[in-house]
Amino acid sequence: MSTVLEVERAKRKHPLQRLDSPSKGFSGALHNDSFGGHFQYLTIIGLTICTLSFACGIIADITNSRTFFLLKNYLSLTAAPLELLISLLYWSLRLIDTSLVIPPDLPMLPLATDLTFHLFPAIFLSLDALLLSPPWPTSPVNPNAPLVTLAMSTVLAFAYWFWIEVCYERNGFYPYPIFALLGLWQRVGLFLGSAVTMWVVGGGLRAVYAYVNGFERVEGKRD
C-alpha cells in the first residue's frame, strides 16, 4: 500500500520539487484556480475591507475630504471588529491545533508574514478607531449602535458561511480544514459564535473608546 502511495506522490511531484503540485493545498491556493479564489479565505476578505478603509483614510488626509473620512469610518466599523475576530480565531485555533486552520500540505508562513496577515491589521484598525475616529461614523452617537453592530455581525458571519458552502460545492474542499471536521449544526454554532464574538469585540472597542476619549453628550432630540 505504501509503495502505491509513493508512486502516486511521485506522479504529482518531482523528487527535487518542494511541495505537491497539482494539489488542493498550497498549489491550489497559490495558483488561484479554484472557484472563489483567494476570497474563500476570511483573512483575505478582512484584509480587503481593511485596505479599502485605509485607502479612504489616506485620501481624506491628502484632500481633507469629509466624504472620504466618513466612508473610512463606516468601513472601519466593519473592518476593525472583523480583524479582531480573525486574530482571535486564528491564534486560538493555532494554539489548539495548527492543522485546524492550515492544510497539512501548506507550509507554515514566516512569522513576520503571519503577523502581517493575522495581527497587525487588527492593531492598526483599533488604533485608528480609538485615536482617529469619532465615537460613531455619525454625530451624535447612534443610540442603536449595539443593535446595528449585532445585526451587521450576524449578516456578515452567515453570508460568509453561505459563500464557503457555495465554494465547497464547486471545489470539493473547504478553505479551512476545521470546516470539514464539523457537522452542519456545529458549523451553525461556529458561525453564530463568531457573530456574537464580533459583536462583543465591537462593543469592547466602543467601551475602550469611551474610557480613553470620554462620552459624547447629546443635547436635544435626534431628527
UniProtKB/TrEMBL annotation:
Its main location: membrane. InterPro entries: ADTRP_AIG1 (IPR006838). The keyword Mitochondrion does not apply. Pfam families: Far-17a_AIG1 (PF04750). It is a multi-pass membrane protein. Keywords: Membrane, Transmembrane, Transmembrane helix. It is found in: Endomembrane system. It comes from the Eukaryota. The chain crosses the membrane at residues 39-62, 74-93, 115-133, 145-164, 184-212. GO terms for cellular component: endomembrane system; membrane. This is FAR-17a/AIG1-like protein. It comes from Aaosphaeria arxii CBS 175.79. The lineage of its organism: Eukaryota, Fungi, Dikarya, Ascomycota, Pezizomycotina.
